[in-house]
Give the backbone structure.
Amino acid sequence: MHKNREIAAIVPCYNEEQTIAAVVKDLKAAVPGITVYVYDNNSSDATVEVAAKAGAIIRNENRQGKGNVVRRAFADIDADIYLLIDGDDTYDVASAPAMIRALVEGPYDHILGCRVDHKEASAYRFGHASGNRMFNLLVGFLFGEPVTDMLSGYRVFSRRFVKSFPALSRGFEIETELTVHAMALRVPQKEMPVGFSDRPEGSFSKLNTFRDGFRILWLIARLFTHERPFGFFGTISALSTVAGLALGIPVILEFASSGLVERFPSAILAGFLMVIGFLSAAVGSILSGVLRGRRESMRLAYLNHVAMIDPTL
């Protein structure tokens, strides 16, 4: 399945002493020869000691946030295949071999583990399932490609995906950035169902529903501006132009019939809205050209690394 390929598991951790040993041991049992890197993110418990005892290589990232951990890990670790999984023991590690096999045989650059949840015994916290569905629909609509579980922390990547990913996010919104990057670069990717269970008793989530939800929503808005500039500024242009015409046409008709302009505020506002419309269209066009150059650079960085199909790997 993965002969002569180096596989690295990246496990971001913050106070996961109760679960990290099981994750490390299960990974080593499921994928023989895998190297497990546990990235400690300022834990105040015994996460580091427990992970090391279980056989993981310990790395540290002092900047708080999962995005900071992923950025550091992607930069530091050299491997052919990368597996990203949370250290809370909620994902089914037994799915890892199938995900890795799919990446190699595809060949793909990104395998997304989509969580399978059971309504009668849901492992999602209150509001998370509906929020996740909302974000999936929003991202699919804005970026033109459907996604089932964009907030999943269980993924497998090729080397060329990892080394072409900028990783700009700081916190839990990193999953959103990974998803949108795969869409923007149009890499070959696949979704696979994976088991998902609740945290063990005594283990607590670090995800803040509303704070992190708003961060994800804000990131989606910024990514839409960056990745679909003409769509964003074109919408502003269209709305502004329509509003300007709605206000301006009656003023023009009045002037044509009487030779007078009695509604100066409407005329001024209409002119202002039309200027905004034209400027927005111009900004969208310019940024679309910038986007093309940026995507060409991203594509070249992606192609600079050997494909998974290469028989020497």
